[in-house]
Amino acid sequence: MSVILLAGGVAGLVLLVVGGELLVRGGSALGVRLGLSPLVVGLTIVAFATSAPELAVSVGAALRDAPGLAVGNVVGSNIVNVLLVLGLAAVILPVAATSSLIRIDVPVLVAMSVLFLVLALDGSISTVDGMLLLAVLVLHTAWSVWSSRRQTRAPAVGPDAVAGSDVVPAEPRLGVPMAVLVIALGIAALLGGAELVVAAAREVATAFGLSDLVVGLTVVAIGTSLPELATSVIAAIRGEREIAIGNVVGSGIFNIGAVMGLTAIIAPSRVPVDPAAVNFDLPVMVLVAVVLLPLVFTGFEVARWEGVLLVAYFAAYVGYVLLDATGHDALPVLSGTLLWFALPLTLLLLVATTSYEVGRRRERAAARG
């Protein structure tokens, strides 16, 4: 890798941090001015802005006849968002989850992930499939904005008003025009930073002879998810914990609905899906989305130990993809460890913590009754 490319990668990381800070500040301020909760700000304004690199990369890949990169980018980005982005944010500060996120938004992400898998079973995503995915996104976004504005006019009382509420923060100093300008500057910095980092990373991947699908699932997925990573981590540091998790869930929904949907609509023909993605990576994406449900259900937050667990699984996933792509002898060892030790232990922990949380809520309900 040349010195210029390396310097560009470092500059890209700096731009990502600056852009994430600006986007959180501007998005939070604009959300309050529009009467939106921090969660919905994360689900819409912040999530859509940070997913812009995924949209640009996937549409461009489809038009350049590189469908493996387009599909791998969407699938890989959703896996990265939950395992790495949310995991690191939770390690820094436990990430708060609202009741509406548990009841509506995470189930929508799970449903869209399953729908994506089902549509891809025939080996491609058609224009009609893309229109269906985009329609689901539009409906969910419209509902989220309408519901949030209604709730901010009539604040919640009871349990939701304490833990997992959609309470709007204090009125910000930024007006709407200035908030929009700050958001625009943040998006520009994020896009520029992501492009510099991805260019450097893609050079390394190409040197190792990795396929379009593998590059999309790893290098490009991580690179285009850097805006989400920077934004969610900065949001967690600044105490905007609902924006942090809203950004992750909203970006996942946007990636499937808009990025994959628009890619299928704009592409000259049906977007083919590699059998390897249908057999392994798409089911992993669905499983990762499903795992979010018990994580956010327990205590209305993703705890630090759960964040560590997510990051560890991300490292294992990337290791598996790379070992499988290169046919390494260590692949059976890693596969066996994950299948017979890590996954059963994780399921046991999730079942135990969920059962404990259900018991606590029943006790509180009995005490109130």
Task: Based on the model shown, name its key terms.
369 residues, mainly alpha, A middle domain of Talin 1, two-stranded antiparallel sheet, 13 helices, 4 strands, globular, NCX_ion-bd_dom_sf, transmembrane, transmembrane helix, Cation:H+ antiporter
- Give the helices and strands as they follow along the chain: HHHHEHEHHHHHEHEHH
In spatial order, strands of the major sheet run 1-4
The DSSP helix count reads: 13
Which geometry do the CA atoms define?
A: globular
Uncertain regions spanning at least 5 consecutive residues = 155-171
Number of strands: 4
Q: Can you identify the CATH superfamily of one domain?
A: NCX, central ion-binding region
CATH topology of one domain: A middle domain of Talin 1
Strand share of the residues?
A: under 5%
Instruction: Give the CATH architecture of one domain.
Output: Up-down Bundle
**In terms of structural class, how would the helical and strand content be classed?**
mainly alpha
Q: Helix fraction?
A: over 70%
Question: On the 0-100 scale, what is the average pLDDT?
Answer: 78
Biggest sheet architecture: 2 strands, antiparallel
InterPro entries: K/Na/Ca-exchanger, NaCa_Exmemb, NCX_ion-bd_dom_sf
Pfam families: Na_Ca_ex (PF01699)
Subcellular location: Membrane
Keywords: Membrane, Transmembrane, Transmembrane helix
Structure commentary:
This protein has a domain at 38-172 and 211-328: NCX, central ion-binding region (A middle domain of Talin 1, Up-down Bundle), CATH 1.20.1420.30. The strands form 2 sheets. A two-stranded antiparallel sheet has the order 1-4. Residues 155-171 have low confidence and may be disordered. It is 81% helix and 2% strand. The chain contains 13 helices and 4 strands. With 369 residues, it is an all-alpha fold. It comes from Nocardioides massiliensis.
